[in-house]
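FYI - complex with heme C, inputs then prediction.
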Amino acid sequence: MAVATLLTVVACKPPPDDRTSLSADAAERGRAVIERVSCGSCHVMPGIDWPQGRAGPSLEGFDDVGLIAGALPNTPGNLAAFVRDAPAAKPGSTMPAMPITAAEAQDVAAYLYGMNDE
Ligand code: HEC
């Protein structure tokens, strides 16, 4: 199951922080997914130069937020579920479901957690 798989990835990496230690490969794949489905058409995202839309909240500093979309505890599993199908993860969310697989959603989560580390 998706959450267990992601936690395994985390467990293979050393500290410092179990959220930012997600693999760089996953983050790189996540970046490609983000560009493919144009998350940037609604979000300002560090490392994604185009198109820088404003329909959704800026994701700058996102890895520090306490609750995803003000509703869900900020864990890798919740984030992957939210970015794939926000209305299912948070009833009433105005972010549409995105055409990505569960594995791609985990990679997107890895990118979001890592994007402020450079
Ligand atoms: C059609 C516009 C749109 C697209 C495309 C979109 N989002 Fe969103 N996103 C939103 C809106 C609107 C919200 C606020 C939703 C809410 O509060 O329920 C949001 C919320 C979020 C949040 C929570 C932000 C926070 O501060 O808690 C994350 C993370 C996120 N989106 C990531 C993504 C990713 C990754 C993609 C691409 C896979 C994406 N979004 C595509 C509109 C969009």
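Residues 42 and 54 are 5 Å apart (CA to CA). Helices lie at 2-12, 24-37, 76-84, 86-89, 102-114.
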